[in-house]
Amino acid sequence: MAEKTISNLDAFKEDHSENVIDTNKKLKVGIIGTGWIAGSHMNELKKMPDVEIVGAADLVPGKAKKFMTDWGFPDVPCYLSGHEMLEAIPDLDAVTICTYNKQHAPCAIDALEHGVNVLLEKPFTVTTEEAVEVMRAEKKSGKILSIGFQPRFNPNMQMLKKFVQSGELGKIYYIQTGGGRRRGIPAPFGTSFIEEKTAGIGAMADIGCYSLDMVLNAVGYPKPLTVTGYKSDFFGKDPAYWTAENKPAEYADLFGVDDFAAGFIRLEGGIILDFRISWAMNMDTAGDTLILGTKGGLRIPSTECWNGSIGGPMKVYRTLPNTTTEVCWEIPMLNNTREGEFYYKIRNFLDAIKNGGTSPVPSSQILYNQAIIDGIVKSSNCGHEIEIEIPEV
Ligand SMILES: NC(=O)c1ccc[n+]([C@@H]2O[C@H](COP(=O)([O-])OP(=O)(O)OC[C@H]3O[C@@H](n4cnc5c(N)ncnc54)[C@H](O)[C@@H]3O)[C@@H](O)[C@H]2O)c1
């Protein structure tokens, strides 16, 4: 089989010229939830000359104050809930919601009802019904709601989408995606990822939503129709897992979410999606992502510790037109842009607010991502295939 490097790569690259930031108009931004990921938000917000951080909130007394002080903003007012902050600061332009999953929907609805633009961390919500409720509040408010999928702003991910959408692969009929970790249930600062009452969903919400977004975004987010789902918790419920990780054995009793899940999903347009995701398993990888089309196939390497990024050069398998010559082209990795993808996830959200643009990662797309995850949960619970029902927004 002929091996070469794909020649017209430039056609699949995004334009990354920087917009000049208008510092005459500043945005008043608040942070809801000051745990682990809020630090990444602060790191980027601090760089932006048109952002004024005017408040922070966390349910844990003193946590928001300590967070803001550590980040060099000791005088910013802090509150004991997102709601308290929304009531106290009437001219807030935007909030970034960095709470655990179960508080995504209530905080987002509250902010939108207060007329505030929302950057909501992934996953969108826990259930489809919650996502629809948030979207109803979004529609009523007319504000921007963007969901925090930073891999969208990675140049390799953008090239992947452009490549698939160029038609080079022909009609797409089958996608395999997902990822896995051999031992990687996240509990670095407590149990908010593993308890049902805070997380609601586990590996699917933490890393599965990235795999789904990578492929669904590439093929234009077709609607999911049916799903056969499976989920399990063999590792998280095992006290020996936690002691081996130098964590309390009691985490096994608290564990209330999935650590492995799989789904077989039919998408509108005749595409089959075969998905699996793992926080822990006796295997090195759950496999690469494959996109099969009538004219070509694409292999997207997984990463050892799946985090939503492309693990190495993608490969395109094709037959040259009007020949029987099979070729395999390697797509070289692009370097990251000047700022990282987390910067652009926030910058694009702020620019949409300032310039009257549309949401960079719209809820109308991520609703389908959520509906697949929720469908896997529901199908797994009832033990058979289900139709995916999405209420009207
Ligand atoms: N985009 C990414 O790369 C990335 C990475 C890690 C986590 N996340 C997502 O970010 C979210 C938070 O994760 P984390 O690791 O920071 O969790 P965390 O548990 O460390 O922090 C969440 C904080 O939110 C606070 N909180 C909850 N409800 C609140 C409310 N109503 N008002 C104010 N504060 C509230 C909690 O007290 C806690 O301090 C999760 O949904 C996770 O999926 C995204």
CATH-scheme architecture of the largest domain: 2-Layer Sandwich
Strand runs, count: 16
- The first-to-last residue Cα distance is 50 Å
Q: CATH homologous superfamily of the largest domain, by name?
A: Dihydrodipicolinate Reductase, domain 2
**Which residues form runs of ≥5 with pLDDT under 50?**
none
The count of helical stretches stands at: 11
Q: What CATH first level of the largest domain would be assigned?
A: Alpha Beta
Which whole number gives the mean pLDDT? 94
Largest sheet: 10 strands, mixed
Number of spatially distinct domains: 2
**Structural class category:** alpha/beta
Oligomer: single chain
**Percent of sequence in beta strands:** 15-25%
Order of helices and strands: EEHEHEHEHEHEHEHEHHEEEEEEHHE
For this structure, the CATH topology of the largest domain is Dihydrodipicolinate Reductase, domain 2
The helical percent reads: 25-40%
Strand order of the largest sheet: 1-15-14-13-12-8-11-10-9-16
Distinct ligands, ions and cofactors found in the model: nicotinamide-adenine-dinucleotide
Shape, please?
A: globular
Radius of gyration based on Cα positions: 21 Å
Describe, in plain words, how this protein is organized in 3D.
Helices cover 30% and strands 23% of the residues. It has 393 residues and is an alpha/beta fold. The chain has two domains: 17-151 and 342-362, Rossmann fold; 155-337 and 371-377, Dihydrodipicolinate Reductase, domain 2 (2-Layer Sandwich), CATH 3.30.360. Helix 6 (155-165) packs across helix 7. The protein is globular and about 70 Å long. The mean pLDDT is 94. The structure holds nicotinamide-adenine-dinucleotide. Nicotinamide-adenine-dinucleotide is lined by residues 32-38, 57-60, 63, 81-82, 98-101, 103, 107, 121-122, 148, 150, 189, 192, 206.
